[in-house]
Write a structure and sequence with these properties.
With 307 residues, the chain is α/β, with parallel strands linked by helices. It has one domain: Alpha-Beta Barrel (TIM Barrel), CATH 3.20.20. Helix content is 45%, strand content 12%. Helix 2 links the parallel strand 1 and strand 2. It starts with 7 loop residues before the first helix and ends with a helix.
């Protein structure tokens, strides 16, 4: 076989040509992949409401009333926050009413949900008292959803026993929620950030929903946490919506928990799933801002299909 020497200049020309062709090839593959996903122009208009979470996008020293005002200035129709203690709920409600904003969610069982919850034997009453207090706060601001955790995994109690205690306690919490016209929405957390927590996947939460079978006990599908713990966001979300388990959805990208569009999750697609399903609940914007809150809110509105 005859060999041909390649001069340095020819080699440089070859490599330059290959480098130029690579983006074209990759762009073609990306375009083909996008064609298989929902096209925004052909999707139904979004029925859900974006709820700006007041916790992560704003400076810690900023008063919550100012955070709410700034969200309203950006056209937000709803807001959410975490713990109710230390906040002037009356002022928040008055300001929200002034701007025609709804409260999408607050946290339920602030004292016990991250520790004993319902997983520790004998802790049920403390959890229910904790949840009942949160329900009263939710009523003050008109929040229909109480995002709730049910405790850490207890190393000295069998998993079957912990599951039975979760189911029993949630049935009782469901009655408290029903009497107030609100919902306990169970949130699976990230195995990366909260490995000690008892509920870390959507499928585990759905198993609990099947066993609890209470109309006021639902699931918060937090895509940031579930992308870390489980993946398979599309099929799990579709299952939860179809079976009526998912009542609240939260977004935040991976890594960094910045606004959708800054990381690995295909949020254009995920918002398309919600639009195709006709989801009409709240979507909590529980994320940081890569640059500033104005840019983050505008970016999510575009991805969600509002502009």
């Amino acid at each position: 076989m005859q060999q041909h020497d390649i001069s340095p200049s020819s080699r440089r020309q070859f490599l330059a040509g290959a480098a130029a062709a690579l983006p074209v090839a990759l762009g073609g593959a990306a375009a083909a992949a996008q064609e298989k996903q929902p096209v925004a122009a052909t999707l139904p208009a979004p029925k859900f409401t974006l709820s700006v979470n007041l916790e992560l996008m704003f400076p810690r020293e900023m008063p919550y009333e100012e955070r709410l005002q700034r969200a309203a200035d950006e056209g937000a129709k709803a807001y959410s926050f975490w713990a109710f203690r230390g906040k002037d709920l009356d002022k928040l409600k008055t300001l929200a009413d002034k701007h025609g904003m709804a409260c999408g969610s607050i946290t339920g069982a602030n004292k016990t949900g991250f520790s004993t919850g319902l997983t520790k034997t004998g802790a049920e009453q403390a959890f229910l008292d904790d949840f009942r207090e949160a329900v009263e706060a939710a009523k003050k601001v008109g929040a229909p959803n109480l995002i709730t955790f049910v405790g850490e995994t207890q190393t000295d109690i069998s998993l079957d026993m912990q599951h039975a205690q979760i189911v029993s306690g949630l049935k009782k919490a469901g009655e408290i929620a029903a009497a107030a016209g609100v919902y306990l929405t169970l949130e699976p957390l990230s195995v990366v950030h909260h490995p000690k927590m008892s509920v870390l996947t959507a499928q585990h939460a759905y198993r609990i929903m099947r066993d609890v079978a209470h109309p006021h006990i639902k699931v918060d599908f937090d895509m940031f946490h579930l992308q870390h713990s489980e993946g398979n966001l599309t099929l799990n979300l579709q299952e939860g919506l179809t079976k009526g388990y998912v009542r609240f959805v939260e977004v935040g990208d991976v890594p960094g928990r910045f606004e959708p569009g800054t990381g690995e999750t295909n949020y254009a697609h995920m918002f398309g799933v919600l639009r195709e399903a006709g989801y009409a609940g709240f979507v909590g914007m529980e994320h940081r801002a890569r640059t500033d809150y104005k840019t983050a809110i505008a970016a999510v509105r575009r991805l969600a299909g509002f502009v």
